[in-house]
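Thanks for the sequence, V.! I ran Ribonuclease HI family protein right away. Repeating your input here for the record:
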Amino acid sequence: MSFLIYQIIKAFVNHLRMSLPSSIMKLEVLVMLIKVYSDAASQGNPGNSGAGLVILYNGQQIQQHRYLGNMSNHEAEFAAAIWAFQVLATLSNESDTIMYYADSKIVIDSIHKRYAKHFGPQLAQLLTYYDRYHLIIATWLPEKQNHGAHQLAWQAIHHQH
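Predicted structure:
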């Protein structure tokens, strides 16, 4: 699905180039597609928690993990998402196209609805980073398709002990 979206954006940019006056056509338009995967893991609910992050951009893969402390699973998922966007902010521009993936339905649904009944402060913090980008697509995916970030989240917990 993300490849299709990238192709649509690329075609649109090419169309813009053809539509612009020749003096402007010399401007290079760069569309960077960045994929971000985040996940959290908790030993107990609440319990020791960790976050995992995989970012794919510019032919590179960044993998990171972070210990989050003692929190509920949902708190950890929001903390992982916030941290992912904090890291992303250091690597990207607001004009980049961001594909964000998480296996937490509450995080993805809250982003789409821009509302979280019990996690309003966490969502507000997340949206301050999220809203920075002109084009961003947040997608829920099954845990088995988020294996890299999931493994990193568990590594964060295990390395803390």
